[in-house]
Amino acid sequence: MGALPGWRELPRGAAILEPGSSVRxxxxxxxxxxxxxxxERCIRCRICWTYCPEPAIHEIDKxxxxxxxxxxxxxxxxxxxxxxxxGICAEECPVKAxxxxxEVR
Amino acid sequence: MGKVIPISGNYAVAYAAKAADxxxxxxxxxxxxxxxxxxxxxFVANGELDAEFIHVESEHSALSAVVxxxxxxxxxxxxxxxxxxxxxxxxMHIASTLRLPIVMGIAAxxxxxxxxxxxDHSDFMAASDTGWIMFMAxxxxxxxxxxxxxxxxxxxxxxxxxxxxxxDGFLVSHTIEPVNIIERxxxxxxxxxxxxxxxxNPDKPITLGPLASPDWYFxxxxxxxxxxxxxxxxxxxxxxxxxxHFGRKYGEVDAYYTDDADVVLVTMGSASGTALAYxxxxxxxxxKVGLINVRLxxxxxxxxxxxxxxxxxxxAVVDRAVNAGSSFVGPLYSDxxxxxxxxxxxxxxxxxITGLGGRAVLKDHIDHMVxxxxxxxxxxxxxxxxxxxxxxxxx
Amino acid sequence: MLVEIRWHGRGGQGAxxxxxxxxxxxxxxxxxxxxxxxxxxxxxxxxxxxxxxLSDKVIYDRSPVLSPDIVVILDPTxxxxxxxxxxxxxxxxxxxxxxxxxxxxxxxxxxxxxxxxDATKIAMEVFRLPIVNTAMVSxxxxxxxxxxxxxxxxxxxxxxxxRLASLNEQVIRKAYELTEVM
Lengths: 105, 395, 182
Description:
By secondary structure, chain A is mainly beta. Chain A is 10% helix and 21% strand.
């Protein structure tokens, strides 16, 4: 507590003067179960990306070739700094490519 | 100097908002405040006032809209009464703690139930814990002047707080009386627009109204207390400069005949006028009665009141509201009693509750209070068995 | 100098506006004046009371007028002893009635001065509506002299549109002539 500023030092009216400062707030600390994407089963439908409320699922320009030989232009990756482990992605995935696994810290 | 015109209290308030050149108005009509909103919308419609008039579906939205407009740096105004003020109550706390310099008129009215549109101070007093600076005007001229002074005080860099200007429903809001109207250029010389509070601006983004966890919240409530205490000096200066600009002198309180009074009456609003008329007559008959009119209610002007009751033998506080079940009953009484207790006054302070729901406050009622208070002269507070009485009610 | 006036009428006759016109005419002459209604829920036909206080000094008293110097009665059906309660001895009653002042004085008793005018008749002739307030303000001016006719006409032109102001001026001039004082 000693490190936090006193009321005289804080901006008036609880204004936060630094834009985008919320990125420093790593909401992943709330997570109990962690989503893991099976890149083999993933069909790149974008539903997890759409549904993630944070959004903590990134669509990355990284090609992926499955064992079946099919090549995808993009890869979906989870940002574990902000993923709260809500499980919506796993629930919505139409091919069950996302599994919620126990968080080990 | 402006010119004197015959005008109602409501119009006097609307003319003041116009003179202050407000940028945004959001208000919802409610008796007895309605004429303020009507007049302001007329000013906007006919081009006399270049402002956004935001039509809203409730008072909750009205105050929310002016909170938003103030947060982008607009000079904003709203007005309400009674149930409307209660609907604003939630947002009043937000406006003060976010430190937004809103000015609001309150045409003071009773609260339901039963339904009653007439004057008392139940609505005004219910808002007295919201962190707003609060004034109560005695007449239409004061209501006009205090709205303009209100902008200067609210927007002062040392303050950044919302200001409410109360004036009695009907007794001031609907009474035609002479008012010296302040013109826009004079008002803006006295209360120039200067945006020094934190505002939302896409070019320089900030966050207003965030969540504050237990690690942070407490500090901002302390800031609010510090700000409203610090406003005392700004209010004194604003009144002094008001007198220089416009020739009308206002104080946090007015005191009449208090130097040698055995009984000092303490009143607020239009009843102060009736009480003053009574005191002038009673003095001619040798009754040693004095009067304090409380103009500034928040921050409560303790020092000024203490000074004027120094020689009193009994203090008689007149309330037009009831805080049922409290230790004090009348809300003004509670502030006066604490003021006296903190300074070790050991004289009776008694409470007369009168004029609820538009019941007339007559000089006869004041006379009854003063006669009763005079019977307590020489007693100590601990000798008093009953601290309050209802005056003008049927038994 | 303090003059207190009480107005009695019915919703729609303009008692509140009458009191406001008197205040207006006094204030533009540099006097201090208040006009305030006995605030009620406004309904056409319901009894309405309004008040004036006029002075050369600031008026603080905001209580209703209980002992007026003047009572003005806008509605002929209300003329009687009930509405003059509290009227000061030698106070003035100004009534809208077809009766002569002497006839009315017999009803009210000897303690008061009485002025009458058939304001309804005048209003019906000019407006074709029984809106009697400006006629009764004029009767008040004629009987009491508390404000002058010019100030009243100024107040009327400030308050009403040009067309209504001119009709009201006709009413005011007629009522001023026809008011009888005892």
